[in-house]
Amino acid sequence: MTVQTTTRADEKYLARAIDIATENVRTQGGPFGALVVTADGQEFEGVNRVTANLDPTAHAEVSAIRAACTGTGTFDLSGAVLYTSCEPCPMCLASALWARLDRIVFAANRDDAAAAGFDDATFYRFFDDPSVRQGMLPVSVIALEDAIRTAPFIEWGNTTSRIEY
C-alpha cells in the first residue's frame, strides 16, 4: 500500500464516507460507507447492506461503484476517486480495479475492521498463499475441447456490436 499526499477535499470526502457509515449503523446496516467522486465532481454514495439485502456482495464500496456507473452511464470510472470508511476487502478492491478508479482513500484499516468483528484475513490469505486454498473453497476445472470451452469467447469476438471493456 502506498501512502500518497491527500488534500483538504480528500479529507472532506473521507469524513463524509465515515458519516455515511455511522448513519448506516443506525438504520441496521453494516459499519461501512463509501463515496465515489467523479472527475467532474459528481458524488455517488454507497452503504453496506449485506444483512439487510441478504446479499454478501452488497458492500459499501461496490454499492457506491454501482451507483456511480449507473449515474454516469458508464462502467469506466477513470478519473474518479473512491472514498471509503474502511480499507476495501479483496472483492471491493477488485471492483475498484474493474471500474478503473484512479485512487482509493480510506480511514480504518483491515486490523480495525477485524477488531470490530469484520476479519477478512482469510480472504487475503486465499490470494496470497495458494496452500491455504486447499479445503477452503474447492475449485475444479473440467478439461473440455477448445471449441466447447472457448465458445463464449469466440461468439464475443465475432459480435460486432460488443462493447469492449
Descriptive account of the structure:
- It is a single chain.
- The protein has 165 residues and is α+β, with helices and mostly antiparallel strands.
- The protein has a domain at 8-119: Cytidine Deaminase, domain 2 (3-Layer(aba) Sandwich).
- The protein is 43% helix and 13% strand.
- The protein contains 8 helices and 4 strands; from the N terminus they run H-E-E-H-H-E-H-E-H-H-H-H.
- It has a 4-stranded mixed beta sheet.
- The two termini are 26 Å apart.
- Pfam families: dCMP_cyt_deam_1.
- Residues 8-131 form the CMP/dCMP-type deaminase domain.
- GO terms for molecular function: guanosine deaminase activity.
- InterPro entries: CMP_dCMP_dom, Cytidine_deaminase-like.
